[in-house]
Design brief:
Blueprint: H1 2-16, H2 23-26, H3 33-51, H4 61-68, H5 73-90, H6 96-102, H7 121-130, H8 136-142, H9 146-159
Helix pairs in contact: 3-4, 5-9
């Protein structure tokens, strides 16, 4: 009987209780590994609260994700970033969004401040593409084929995992 109740509760969970964020937020986050790990930690705590899992039950995060069918928030963010990158690559070169993507601060005479460089959005997208062995130049060629690009986006989500900061 409890297995049936879990099934019913989980199906209700999948339909009504998803934690959502505005998609434009996901696709513009330049998450470093520390922030991605914190986001996944929050996501796991939210899943535990929704499913009613307590700390003394010793349920691993991987088991919780398998039970609920929810991917980590950092992999969703990676998928959205790569999807947005493909969209921007398909824009004409004179479009303002595409112009920002192609903008080179060094050529404009801009300099980065001293210290450790901040993580830029394009650096994070390049890291996401490296997980599936695609360079940004290859991505420019691949983005013209939407079907193939969609499969690349899905493979980014399945291979994405948080690593230690470099």
């Amino acid at each position: 009987m409890t297995a049936v109740m879990e099934q019913v509760n989980l199906s209700c969970f999948q339909l009504r209780s998803k934690v959502t964020a505005n998609p434009s937020v996901y696709q513009t986050w330049a998450l470093n590994n520390t922030l991605a790990a914190r986001l996944d930690g929050f996501d796991s705590r939210a899943l535990r609260r929704i499913t009613g899992t307590r700390w003394h039950e010793h349920v691993r995060n991987s088991e919780l994700r398998e039970l609920t069918g929810q991917p980590p928030a950092s992999s969703l963010a990676a998928m959205r970033r790569v999807r947005w990158y493909g969209h921007v690559l398909r824009l004409p070169p004179e479009h303002p969004t595409r112009a920002l993507l192609d903008f080179n601060p060094k050529q404009a005479g801009w300099r980065r401040p001293r210290g450790k460089p901040r993580t830029r959005w394009m650096d994070v997208v390049s890291r996401d593409l490296r997980t599936i062995n695609i360079t940004p130049h290859q991505a420019q060629l691949a983005a013209t084929n939407r079907g193939w690009w969609r499969s690349l986006v899905n493979s980014v989500g399945s291979t994405h995992h948080v690593q230690e900061d470099e």
